Amino acid sequence: FNIILLFSTFLTRLLTFSLLRDMSVTKPLCVEFPRSMVEAVTSWNLPMSRFLHTYVFRSALRFGVFSAVMVTYTASALLHGLSFHLGAVLISLGFITYIEHVLRKRLAVIFSACVLSRKCPPGCSHQNKKKRWVYLINIAFSALAVLHLTYLGSVFNSSVDYTEEEEDDITHHTIQKWSELSWTSHWVTFGCWVFYRLVL
Fold first, then answer.
1. Cα separation, 195 vs 109, whole angstroms
2. By C-alpha distance, which of 133, 129, 131, 103 is closest to 117?
3. Environment class of residue 110 by beta-carbon count within 10 Å: exposed (0-12), middle (13-18) or buried (19+)?
4. Are 36 and 104 in contact (CB under 8 A)?
5. Domain limits of the chain?
6. Known catalytic residue: 80?
């Protein structure tokens, strides 16, 4: 009887482990020290990211990558309750992640370097993998991601109770905060887009 009990306990733990193994919700190090904004965004809420990628992004790909990205972030904004500050942050993230992705993809092709938004698989075809300048490019994009995260997060003020605030007050707070910061992240993103267009 003890052997049966021991075996059933073992099976229960094995089953529980196998089911819970993929139950992680976030990858905090990828959010706090991101390689890219793409990595930060997809690591923030893994189940939601998987859901949106599977059911929204893939379905919208027939309209093009940019459209699919924007539809996905719009769906995320709707799922978050369509608050202005959340919507503004998510739509901004859509532009930021798309522009960063296409710029890094272009740089990876031009320099044949591992500078994509996501880490290259071990057997990638890039010729430049571990050169100092490759690390510098990736570090620069990581620093840029931290800048974007800080800027976008600035609208979430801990002293403001968003459940009691009027939507007009939240809208004003978001615009005022980003104005105080000179729309830095938006201008940097625009600059990255211009740079992307120039390096054809």
1. 15
2. 103
3. exposed
4. yes
5. 24-156+167-199
6. yes
Amino acid 80: pLDDT:
83
b/e map of 169-190 (b: 16 or more CB within 10 Å)? ebbebbeeebeeeeeebbebbe
Per-residue model confidence (pLDDT) at position 85: 86
Q: Where are the alpha helices (DSSP H) in the chain?
A: 2-20, 28-32, 37-44, 46-52, 58-60, 65-79, 84-111, 132-153, 167-180, 184-198
Catalytic residue among 80, 85, 101, 186: 80
Tell me the one-letter amino acid at 62. R
Q: What is the pTM of this model?
A: 0.82
Q: How remote is the C-alpha of 100 from its chain's centroid?
A: 11
Which one, of 28, 35, 27, 31, lies nearest residue 144 by Cα?
Answer: 35
Burial 145-166 (b: 16+ CB within 10 A, else e): beebbebbebbeeeeeeeeebe
**Segments in the chain below pLDDT 70:** 1-23, 158-165, 167, 200
Cβ contact 136:48 at 8 Å: no
| pLDDT at res. 9 | 61
Helix/strand/coil for 15: helix
Question: What pLDDT does residue 134 have?
Answer: 94
Decide: 112 and 126 in contact? Cβ < 8 Å.
yes
Rounded (5°) CA angle 170-171-173:
60
